[in-house]
Amino acid sequence: MEEAKHIRVYSGCAHPQLSQQIAEYLGIELGRVHITHFPDGEIFVQFEENVRRADVFLIQPTCNPPNDNIMELLIMIDAARRASAARITAVLPYFGYARQDRKDRPRVPITAKLVANLLTVAGADRVLTVDLHAQQIQGFFDIPVDHLYARPVMVPYLKSLIGDNGVVVAPDSGSAKMAMVYGDMLEAGLAVVTKRRINATTVASSHLVGDVKDRICVITDDLTSTAGTLCAAAKILKANGATRIYAAVSHCLLNDVGKAKLLATPEIEQLVTTDAVPVPDTLDGKIKVIGIAPLLGEAIRRIHDGKSISSLFYIDKH
Ligand code: R5P
């Protein structure tokens, strides 16, 4: 690999606002790239400036529509590689298709691995992402993965909500580790709800492990889509005496069904999230969005400068 000289940051079409904020954080202009569709729907990409020997960062959360956003990112990587970029980092503030990360039934795919393969074969040299659905997905890549966490940007606001009477709640067993770390950072208790998924849009929460009576709860998860997981957990918490309930997810992928369900669930006072994916509707304050551009911008700066990013895993108390 040639030594990378200058930094260049480009945005795909998934979340230009976030890319713009990252570029502002870095004190540079977003790079010029032309992205359009042919009449048959195929994607065309052309970098409109020289990227030879550049350290290229391509920003694209693979949120809805995931197939278009992934394909666009792959084509951008291919174009940058063929234009002799020295190093290409795929920046996925949200890594989609990650929930299919194991073969838990016969004849099903592992899409998280498939997407990892696609990014690598297209020519990505590194990946920068935030709150993968499961940490182990890092191992699906044989290129370096820098994995950031949204919690350092979420915790100060969450602490202002729960004070010293908080319990962090995992809404299913898969999110228990995340809840534990949030619990440590928030100096709060821990509870776990068991979940059974009936189908893609319906979940049932059945048991609560932990004490939430007269406590303020924060349900933490990597993402929400139909809000089924959060709302089912909230109902159990209320039934067990929680006084106030908030939810915090890194990636807010709410569809119309999810928005309606969230609005129809008064047990959840507010859903706190980041702008790692676009959140066009805050539902009159029911959703609180916290900006993640400084975290991503700082990580990009450090990757470019060859510096450690591990201090970004903690809260800056200064
Ligand atoms: C599942 O393992 C994830 O961490 C989320 O809990 C889940 O995908 C949320 O989906 P929904 O909002 O549709 O219940």
Describe this structure in words.
By secondary structure, the protein is α/β, with parallel strands linked by helices. The protein contains eight helices and 14 strands. It has helices spanning 16-26, 66-82, 111-122, 151-162, 176-186, 228-239, 256-263, 293-305, and strands at residues 7-11, 33-37, 43-47, 55-59, 87-92, 126-130, 145-148, 166-170, 189-199, 202-209, 216-224, 244-252, 270-274, 287-290. Strands 10-9-8-11-12-13-14 form a seven-stranded mixed beta sheet, with helices on both faces. Strands 1-4-5-6-7 form a five-stranded parallel beta sheet, with helices on both faces. The radius of gyration is 20 Å and the shape is globular. The mean pLDDT is 95. Ribose-5-phosphate binds at residues 99, 172, 174-175, 203, 221-229, 258.
Main attributes of the structure:
318 residues; alpha/beta; Rossmann fold; 2 domains; 7-stranded mixed beta sheet; binds ribose-5-phosphate
Please describe the topology of this protein:
Elements (H helix, E strand, L loop, with lengths): L6 E5 L4 H11 L6 E5 L5 E5 L7 E5 L6 H17 L4 E6 L18 H12 L3 E5 L14 E4 L2 H12 L3 E5 L5 H11 L2 E11 L2 E8 L6 E9 L3 H12 L4 E9 L3 H8 L6 E5 L12 E4 L2 H13 L13
Parallel strand pairs: 1-4, 4-5, 5-6, 6-7, 8-9, 8-11, 11-12, 12-13, 13-14
Antiparallel strand pairs: 2-3, 9-10
